[in-house]
Amino acid sequence: MSNPNWWRDYKFFYFESKDRFRPKVDEWLYLRGQGRKQLSSQAQLKLEWIIYYYSQGNKNASTTAKYFNVTRKTIHKWLKRFKDVGLKGLEENSCAPIHVRKRQISIEQRVRIKSLRNKYPKYGKMKLTYLYFKQYQEEISSWKIQKIIEEGNLYPDKPAAQRARRRQIQAKSHQKQRIQKLIKENKVNYLWHIDTVILTLSEGGYRYLLTAIDEVSKMAYARLYTTHSSRNARDFLERLIYLTDKKVINIHSDNGSEFKMEFEEACRHLNIPQWYSRPHTPKDNAVLERFNRTIQEEFVQMSEVDIFYVDEFNQALTDWLIEYNFHRPHQTLDYFTPLEYLDNYYLKTQQVSPSYSSLTYH
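Below the sequence we write its predicted structure tokens.
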């Protein structure tokens, strides 16, 4: 139920008029802290939408929607919920029906199903459904038979069935973390994007250019490989970790096979959470997609070194990366270079900047 007086619990809020809400900048920090105490991770993400809308987004729903890869309709929906209810309005309402249909299997049906299953232990549920009707002249759903088999563990090979069930549970528990659920922070090295660009050899065959970029500073790294494997992706990650002096906090990739197995193992070993793009959604990795275009147009297509010669190509690529990170001004950084941006960032935060001379590490 909406509570039009909810803001009385938060004295740091105030309204310019009935429809114009404008909290102070430092009060957003307080609100974010309250959100971490009271809200689920999904609701905290929506709170970040609200904060961005009223601060960096300049109350522009289109700008906010584009930044978080959602629709304007979604932003307006949660703005209204926030204005009407407050923090609790950012929680999802349950879509579960009020009246849930309960499983209705009589004791007699249970006895009959178990008897049939014991007599025909290797018959599937559809065959047992047919035999049940033939023997008892009563229709019963295959769903009910399956539930009785699961509840009573009525399998001919019980250990194998238990192992299969465990695998199903593990598969469900290992759900991929999608990038739109990550609450982004304006911190250097907080989120690195990683991707693979497939390059075609003129004689036939392929080379694989792994690329990476920091969401905030636009510091970038890349390296060419001969194969498309998780081992090479792990090697690339380890080099990136060396480059950033072990400061990578989150890593984001698409769902490619190279970012599984050994790459996942390396992320677990380094304690770096993996975030994945939604399938067929390039805009989830828009920052790196733009860098991929730049590196192809400004280096790959212009380079005098053929991609067939991987070692020589990587040496030339290192020189280009130094130019890109140390000397090339970036419009999104107010025409600073990534290195200049980093120097200013670490000066403001009074942190020690990592040595990016390791870009020559190849």
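The first helix runs from residue 25 to 38.
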